[in-house]
Each structure stands twice: as C-alpha cells, then as structure tokens.
C-alpha cells in the first residue's frame, strides 16, 4: 500500500510498476534482507519485541474473532479481511459502526443485457461488441501489421511475437523470469515464500486455501456458486459454456479461431507452436528443460513428482485418496 504524497514530491521520472526492479529491504540491525515488504515488517517486529524498553510503547492491533495480534495496522487489515466474512458485528478498533455489505452500482450497456461493476469494463465491452471497424481507434503493432481493439491484446501480442525487445524480470532464486514485475512477485509468493509467512486466503465453504486472492475467487466461482446464480459465458459457435470468461476465451482460441487470426506461441528450440501460452510453457518444460531447471510438481505425501500438474493430481487421488 503506497502513501499518496504531494505532486511536487514525486521524482522527475514517473514510477512504472511494470518496469521497476524489485526493491531489496535491508535490516539496519542485522544481515537480514528480503524483497517482500511483509517479511521485512515481520522481521522488524521481532526486533521490536526483543528490544522493547519501558519508554517506548508499541501499538497492538488484535482480532476479536481469533485473538490474532500484530504491531502493524496493514497486517491487521489483511488478517481481518479474511475474518470479516465469518464474523458478524465485528468492530474496527474503537469504531462503533458495523461493517455493511457495499451497494453495487452497476454500469449497464445501452445495446444489450451486459452490465459491469466497473465503467472501464463496460467501455471495453462496447468497443468489442458494438462498434463498427471504421469507428474503432485501433491499437497497432509497430513491428508488424497486427492490430487490436484493446491495448491489452496488443500487449499480449508483443510479448508473444517480439520477445527480443522485452525487459525480463528475473527471479534471484531460480531460472524463472517474467515479462511483468507483478508476475514475478506472484511467483515468489507461490514458490519461494515459507508457508509460515504466507497470508493464506481460506475458502469459507471447504478446506481449500490459496496463496493469491484471485485464485480463491476462481475457486469460489468454479465450485461454490449456486447453479441458478451462475453467470455462464457461452460460446456463440458451439454448446460450450464456462463459469470463467478466461476459460471461454481459451476455448474460442483453441477451437474456433481462424488460422490467420491466431497469435502463435512458437518454440525457439524446435518447430513446435501453440495457440495458448500455457501450452508452449508445458512443451518447453517437458521437452527442453533438464531436470535441474524443470518446474516439478511434488507430492506432499511421498517422493513422487512430475512435470505436469495433472499427473500429480491423478497420483494423489489414486495413491493417497486426496
């Protein structure tokens, strides 16, 4: 969470989240260092509790539901966000007002039943579905004839087809690298953060928990939404339908896209090419990475491991009844 400051306090060169390097935090009292703010705060908190003196009072924040305590307000907010769904009439600090479910202001399309919580999403919908080609301000690739109605699609195209010009964000602990800084941070949380230091997002309906909030949201939509409340995303060319729009997009690309309209993901080491980036990653991991650099999915119950997550899930069901 960044603090908003006056405009004259900003540096001459604007901060760019995608291009900025991950800042390393160093402890002034010992040799500890980390790239994650939360870990650094937890480490600093340990110093405070070890070296307290009677003249320095540290504010404590506690959860009324489970007794969780911390010196840091942000950490307390992250924790209570998870607990709020389970607790009624929870009070924030000394405030006597209860949390209320926010009223959603829907943005409706003038041409069809589509609606969205975000005005920006409604704008994208109108451009994609209701504008004629000659009315659209196209986003054009500077390197080839490709053009798109959305800047996000142009960015995906550039990342897929013009890789030589990408500034990669590399992980310091493994060969992983990402085109965007936010993806590198997600990788670090998913693969290199100790489980004791993770702020888990837990499902209220089952034992599922996730390291990332968007994965919990995907789980809820996939498994716990009542059938009558599901907003299905239907394919216009076949009976296929999906709970997640991203799955419908992948289906359309894989099954119905014209060859000339497909942005192919091409392997640099062999003639293989794929319609979906995930398929290319799976191919490279299976065919071109040695054991040391491969991404392995390991069983928590035994020594079994595999390069494909699907095989690990099948193993867990057959051998461990998980």
TrEMBL record:
Listed GO biological process terms: segmentation
Q: Gene3D superfamilies attached here?
A: Classic Zinc Finger
**Domain of life, per lineage:** Eukaryota
Instruction: List the coiled-coil residues.
Output: none
- What is a single cellular component term in the Gene Ontology annotation? nucleus
Q: Identify the keywords attached in UniProt to this record, alphabetized.
A: Developmental protein, DNA-binding, Gap protein, Metal-binding, Nucleus, Repeat, Zinc, Zinc-finger
Its chief place of residence is nucleus
Q: Where are the membrane-spanning stretches?
A: none
- Assigned protein family: Belongs to the hunchback C2H2-type zinc-finger protein family.
Q: Which InterPro entries match?
A: Znf_C2H2_sf (IPR036236), Znf_C2H2_type (IPR013087)
State the Gene Ontology terms under molecular function. Answer: DNA binding; zinc ion binding
**Annotated compartments:** Nucleus
Q: Boundaries of each C2H2-type domain copy?
A: 139-167, 201-229
Species of the source: Zophobas morio
Functional note:
Gap class segmentation protein that controls development of head structures.
Name assigned to this protein: Protein hunchback
PANTHER family, per database record? PROTEIN HUNCHBACK (PTHR24392:SF49), ZINC FINGER PROTEIN (PTHR24392)
């Amino acid at each position: 969470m960044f603090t908003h400051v006056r405009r004259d306090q900003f540096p001459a060169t604007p901060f760019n989240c995608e291009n900025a390097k991950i800042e390393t935090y160093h402890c002034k009292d010992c040799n500890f260092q980390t790239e994650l703010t939360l870990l650094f705060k937890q480490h600093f908190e340990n110093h405070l509790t070890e070296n307290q003196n009677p003249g320095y009072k540290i504010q404590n924040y506690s959860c009324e539901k489970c007794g969780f305590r911390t010196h840091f307000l942000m950490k307390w907010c992250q924790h209570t966000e998870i607990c709020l769904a389970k607790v009624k009439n929870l009070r924030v600090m000394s405030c006597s007002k209860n949390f209320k479910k926010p009223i959603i202001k829907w943005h409706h399309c003038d041409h069809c039943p589509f609606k969205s919580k975000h005005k920006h999403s409604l704008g994208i919908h109108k451009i994609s579905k209701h504008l004629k080609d000659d009315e659209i301000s196209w986003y054009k690739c500077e390197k080839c004839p490709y053009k798109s109605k959305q800047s996000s699609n142009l960015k995906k195209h550039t990342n897929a087809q013009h890789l030589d010009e990408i500034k990669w964000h590399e992980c310091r602990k493994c060969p992983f690298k990402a085109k965007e800084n936010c993806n590198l941070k997600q990788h670090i949380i998913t693969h290199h953060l100790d489980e004791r230091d993770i702020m888990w997002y837990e499902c209220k309906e089952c034992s599922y928990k996730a390291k990332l909030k968007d994965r919990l949201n995907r789980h809820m939509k996939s498994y716990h939404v009542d059938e009558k409340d599901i907003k299905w995303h239907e394919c216009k060319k076949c009976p296929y339908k999906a709970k997640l729009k991203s799955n419908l997009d992948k289906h359309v690309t894989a099954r119905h896209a014209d060859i000339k309209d497909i942005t192919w993901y091409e392997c640099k080491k062999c003639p293989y090419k794929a319609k979906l980036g995930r398929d290319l990653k799976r191919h490279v991991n299976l065919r071109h990475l040695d054991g040391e650099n491969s991404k392995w999915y390991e069983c928590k119950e035994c020594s079994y491991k595999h390069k494909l997550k699907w095989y690990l899930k099948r193993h867990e069901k057959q051998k461990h009844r998980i």
